[in-house]
Amino acid sequence: MNTFAPLAPGALGMVLVGSSVTVSRSLVHAPLFATQAVRYTAAALLLIAFARAARVPILRPRGREWLWLAGIAATGLVLFNVAVVRGVAHAEPAVIAVAVASVPVLLGVLGPLLEGRRPTTRILVAAVVVVAGAVLVEGTGRTDAAGVAWAALALACEAAFTLLAVPVLRRHGPWGVSVHAVWLGAVMLAALTLLTEHPADLLTLGPAQWAAAGYLAVMVTAVAFLLWYRTVAAVGAGRAGLLTGIAPLAAAAIGALSGGGMPGPPVWLGLVVVVAGLAAGLRAPRRGPVRKEPRPRKERSPASP
Q1: CA-CA distance, 283 to 11, in Å (whole number)?
Q2: Angle between the 207-215 and 8-24 helix axes, to the nearest 10 degrees?
Q3: Along the chain (305 residues), what's the average pLDDT of each consecutive run of 10 residues?
Q4: Contact (CB, 8 A) for 155 and 83
Q5: Residue 76 vs residues 133, 139, 270: alpha-carbon distances, Å
């Protein structure tokens, strides 16, 4: 069996997340909460339609599951977007990107603990290598105290997006967690829109901005969420967390292809470092040879010839 097959959905999901950096530039001047509310509402409707078409049952949350799912929506969707948008006003985008790229270390430690296991040295070392490579890719950048605080919040929210899903993935699966987190996030963002913005501002968006919002809704939310939670459910949060190092690589590559220019030597070096860290951390651990127990000898019956 191919041990890397369960990792493929998560890797593709991180490529889509990396692509959102370039796409989101079209929405810099769009109303933040209103645009995101439309994005997540559309994504929720798509996920529900996809689930029905695939005949996947979406279970109703019960008890504490509401808290876990609401936590995913509040941190991984709402607060994360606020931290990124507000953070770039005080820091270069690279600062926020490097903070988010540090997620593998947090997931490598906290993910196994939530799953009832000890963090493995191999995953932790690989996580540090992946983070170091991501720093080379994104650079460090200039910031102030407020920028550091927003970057730290973005890091915590990105980690919470995965960690808070661990307790509910077993019962709800990738489909259920994605559907509930997205519609809850849409409701929260709609409430923030009514409190802080004017919904009518959406009428000022142009075709390019609507296209960007549509791409974020379909590919970066509906599709990427399903792919990511499928891998987390299959291999665990710690090992899947290493794949977040793919996002800055994808962002750099897509930025170059879209006219941002070829990356410099530090970016190429960072790419090699990230790939090395991923290769070390994602390979399946070697197992010792299985000892075969001797088969018990069949005793002959006294009556047998």
Answers
A1: 14
A2: 160
A3: 76 86 80 93 95 93 96 93 76 63 70 72 72 64 72 84 91 95 96 92 92 93 92 83 75 69 64 69 55 51 45
A4: no
A5: 24, 24, 26
